[in-house]
Amino acid sequence: MSRGGNERCHIEAVRTASKYRGQGIGRQMMQFTLDRARTRGCLLAQLTTDKSRPDAHRFYIGMGFKPSHEGMKYEL
């Protein structure tokens, strides 16, 4: 088991309505989520983000996330 079997936080499908972007709402949501994950004993937070969302990538990197994996999908 990776990371000694410790729990990890998985974040997916995060959205802030375009008219509210740039007001710190996304950062507050993410900070709440990360704080909650720490409280629950998670040692790692990971997220998925669409490759077509460069603004979101900059946001997550600005929050301290580091790009690490390549994902794939197969539509049925």
What is the secondary structure topology, with strand pairs?
Blueprint: E1 8-11, H1 25-39, E2 44-47, H2 54-62
Parallel strand pairs: 1-2
Number of strands: 2
CATH architecture: 3-Layer(aba) Sandwich
Class, according to the CATH hierarchy?
Alpha Beta
Q: Provide the CATH superfamily.
A: Gcn5-related N-acetyltransferase (GNAT)
Low-confidence stretches: none
Question: How far is the N terminus from the C terminus?
Answer: 30 Å
What is the fold named in CATH at topology level? Answer: Aminopeptidase
Sequence of strands across the biggest β-sheet = 1-2
Structural class: alpha+beta
Compute the number of structural domains. Answer: 1
Order of helices and strands: EHEH
Percent helix range: 25-40%
Report the β-strand fraction as a percent range.
5-15%
Summary of the model, kept short:
This protein is an alpha+beta fold and 76 residues long. It contains two helices and two strands, in the order βαβα. Helices cover 32% and strands 11% of the residues.
Tag the structure with descriptive keywords:
Aminopeptidase, 76 residues, alpha+beta, two-stranded parallel sheet
Can you put this structure into words, describing what you see?
There is one protein chain. This protein is of the alpha+beta class. It has one domain (2-62): Gcn5-related N-acetyltransferase (GNAT) (Aminopeptidase, 3-Layer(aba) Sandwich), CATH 3.40.630.30. The chain is 32% helix and 11% strand. The protein has a two-stranded parallel sheet. Strand 1 (8-11), helix 1 (25-39) and strand 2 form a beta-alpha-beta unit. The chain is globular and about 40 Å long.
